[in-house]
Amino acid sequence: MMIRLAPLLLTLLATIAQAFDQGETINIPMTEQGLLWNKQIQLEATLYKPAGEGPFPLVIFNHGSTGPRVIPDTLTIKPWGFGAYLNKHNIALLIPMRRGRGASQGSYNESYNCSVNSVESGINYASQSLDATMQYLQQQTWLDQEKIVISGHSRGGLLSVVYAAKHPQKFKGVVNFSGGWMGGQCQIKTPIASNQGLFSKAANNNPLPHLFMYGRNDPYYSDSEIESYAQAFKEAGGQIDFQFYYLGSSANGHALFYEHSDFWIEGFKQYMQQLDLM
């Protein structure tokens, strides 16, 4: 007996297939600088762009860490479903791979050491890849330079918040999915280099509206730690919409972005509408 799929399901499957095929691999030039040398390298990035000439609003999505060794260094992050959703709303999505990740050249030097120096140098090192990305974007005629939202997951979430705090004029908003640089088991003696301290510092004199989205039962940060991140950001003067989801007793809260979009998509849509981007 032949089973006939409902038209809605057929449309959904076609949309998924089309979305999976979308995405343009681009190379972003970057200059690495040493004490006595300069070296030209290329960063890999994936662009999901709506049809047409634009200019389009853009969401930049910054990936997380390797785990360590949980995620292969060579894996290129391609959240194609997110790209299809944004493209449907006439918004582009760019996912830059930082040095030493995916097919990006250079070394992956975002250490997992708990020391203050390691945390600060790791964030600075990651920020240099974002500097190159922003320089590349300044030359793109398809982009509406006044409508850029920076976002990211895990280390990429915290990186987005910290980077936007240093360059608020470049962005319209910031979306943080499960952000943090080191897990809760990493006790950093200097508060300013802890996740809580980093969020607090980034909130100072920061005019941008932020959306923080986390899932409970995150294996890297406890529920109370996550709540302290949002509280510290708010108390330091940051504009924040904090959304904290219970995904189920067996769900991994850290997988909120990749595996539980049904929880966060409406909150994200409302945030983008408030920014006048949807």
Automatic annotation (TrEMBL):
Keywords carried by this UniProt record: Hydrolase, Signal
Keyword Lipid metabolism part of the UniProt annotation: no
Signal peptide: 1-19
MF term (GO), any: carboxylic ester hydrolase activity
AB hydrolase-1 domain: residues covered: 57-177
Transmembrane segments annotated in the record for this chain: none
Keyword flag Signal: yes
Family as reported in the entry's similarity comment: Belongs to the AB hydrolase superfamily. FUS2 hydrolase family.
Protein name (record): AB hydrolase-1 domain-containing protein
